[in-house]
């Protein structure tokens, strides 16, 4: 390999340990400042050139096929920003980007594995281009995600006065979300850039809203300005491998970003969303929600929950769950008593008598009116099912009682 290529490789991978790192029995700090002390008394240095856990291209394609719209393959390949964008756009605006990724996955896997072939190709790019070349696909993604984030925040701002506060002043934060969208896409993969360039560009272009009274064009112009500035002044190569964070750190970061994103959708629905009533009139969702909390249906549920909690405080949660389970009537006994019109203490003879009486009364052959025959037939089936349920339950209990009596020990005086 030529000296030029060797110098390029050094920019991507960590340099090997210098033979002068240990002199006179003294251990010098490792490249990352960490030294491991082993139990056998020897001091060893972590291998800074160790490859990350290797990813499988087969697993990546399986995740792409069955969960690609949600970016599962990107999470597997530690491309969390890419996965977040796919969550926000359902696979790159309803699957468009997901479909085109079928040819890019092998490159993603080589990048995640820091494959020598990928490193060699990346070194060549570093040698030929001082900064990442223009990519139309990435630029369009920056503009679209910047526009999406800006539009979403604009929709989340309450359009009416809430709690005595006019929140319209929050529109000045729209450029912040535009810049975040551009910066997120711009930092995917082996390219990176700073956020403040995008912020300056977005805020500089945003006052155009006072000349163009259309928020659509305002958001688009601000997104274009932020993307152009990022590409020309901020974008640069990520010369070192991405930092390997723990699963907990990745989970917290990714979950936090999703919570912020979906909370904006929640604000939009609650403050500015509407639903149609039975007459076709539009009702704001926040008013419909307040009306729901005041409805008899909800107050009954709330009262039932409160009664359940009070019962548990006096009788314990075990008895409470037992009572709830019994009230669910999983074996159909309570409903069967109700259908036959007998009490829960009725004997088998009383149950049989009620069954025969109701069967004769609601037998379909005795109904002459065709319009009532279907209802009578349904009632007749319910009576038969209720009698069958109670007969099985009574028979099972008799067998258990007989067995328990037989099992009792006989006391001889």
Topology of helices and strands:
Elements: H1 3-12, E1 22-23, E2 26-27, E3 36-37, E4 43-44, H2 57-67, H3 72-76, H4 80-94, H5 96-100, H6 105-113, H7 116-128, H8 136-156, H9 174-186, E5 191-192, H10 195-205, H11 215-234, E6 236-237, H12 247-272, E7 274-276, E8 282-284, H13 285-293, H14 296-315, H15 317-327, H16 333-340, H17 348-361, H18 370-407
Antiparallel strand pairs: 1-2, 3-4, 5-6, 7-8
Helix pairs in contact: 1-7, 4-12, 8-9, 8-11, 8-12, 9-10, 9-11, 10-11, 14-15, 16-18, 17-18
Describe it:
With 413 residues, the chain is mainly alpha-helical. The protein contains 18 helices and eight strands. It has helices at 3-12, 57-67, 72-76, 80-94, 96-100, 105-113, 116-128, 136-156, 174-186, 195-205, 215-234, 247-272, 285-293, 296-315, 317-327, 333-340, 348-361, 370-407, and strands spanning 22-23, 26-27, 36-37, 43-44, 191-192, 236-237, 274-276, 282-284. It has a two-stranded antiparallel ribbon with strand order 1-2. A hairpin with a 2-residue loop joins strand 1 (22-23) and strand 2. The model is unreliable at 1-11 and 13-43 (pLDDT under 50).
Number of E-type strands: 8
Rg result: 35 Å
Q: Please state the overall shape, judged from the principal axes of the Cα atoms.
A: elongated
The number of distinct helices, counting runs of at least 4 residues, comes to 18
H/E element sequence: HEEEEHHHHHHHHEHHEHEEHHHHHH
Mean pLDDT: 83
Determine the oligomeric state from the structure. single chain
């Amino acid at each position: 390999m030529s000296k030029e290529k060797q110098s390029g490789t050094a920019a991507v991978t960590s340099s090997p340990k210098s033979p002068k790192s240990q002199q006179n029995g003294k251990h010098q700090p490792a490249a990352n400042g960490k030294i491991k002390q082993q139990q056998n008394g020897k001091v060893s240095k972590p291998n800074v050139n160790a490859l990350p856990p290797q990813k499988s291209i087969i697993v990546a394609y399986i995740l792409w096929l069955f969960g690609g719209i949600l970016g599962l393959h990107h999470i597997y390949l530690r491309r969390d920003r890419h996965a977040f964008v796919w969550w926000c756009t359902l696979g790159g605006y309803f699957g468009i980007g997901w479909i085109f990724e079928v040819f890019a996955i092998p490159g993603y896997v080589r990048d995640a594995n820091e494959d020598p072939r990928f490193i060699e190709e990346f070194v060549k790019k570093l040698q030929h281009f001082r900064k990442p070349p223009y990519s139309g696909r990435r630029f369009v993604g920056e503009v679209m995600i910047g526009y999406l984030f800006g539009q979403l925040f604009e929709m989340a701002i309450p359009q009416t006065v809430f709690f005595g506060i006019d929140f319209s002043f929050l529109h000045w934060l729209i450029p912040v979300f535009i810049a975040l969208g551009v910066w997120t896409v711009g930092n995917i993969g082996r390219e990176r850039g700073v956020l403040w360039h995008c912020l300056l560009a977005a805020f500089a272009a945003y006052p155009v809203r006072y000349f163009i009274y259309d928020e659509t064009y305002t958001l688009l112009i601000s997104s274009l300005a932020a993307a152009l500035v990022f590409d020309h002044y901020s974008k640069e190569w990520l010369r070192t491998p991405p930092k390997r964070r723990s699963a907990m750190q990745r989970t917290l970061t990714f979950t936090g970003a999703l919570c912020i994103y979906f909370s904006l959708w929640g604000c939009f629905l609650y403050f500015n969303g509407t639903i149609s009533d039975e007459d076709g009139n539009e009702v704001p969702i926040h008013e419909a929600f307040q009306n729901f909390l005041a409805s008899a249906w909800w107050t009954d549920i709330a009262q039932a929950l409160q009664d359940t909690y009070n019962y548990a405080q006096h009788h314990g949660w075990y008895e409470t769950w037992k009572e709830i389970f019994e009230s669910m009537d999983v074996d159909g006994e309570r409903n069967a008593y109700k259908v036959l019109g007998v009490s829960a203490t009725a004997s088998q003879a009383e149950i049989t008598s009620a069954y025969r009486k109701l069967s004769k009364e609601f037998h379909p052959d005795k109904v002459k009116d065709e319009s009532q025959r279907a209802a009578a037939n349904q009632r007749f089936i319910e009576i038969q099912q209720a009698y069958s349920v109670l007969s099985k339950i009574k028979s099972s209990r008799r067998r258990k009682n007989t067995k328990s009596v037989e099992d009792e020990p006989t006391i001889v005086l």
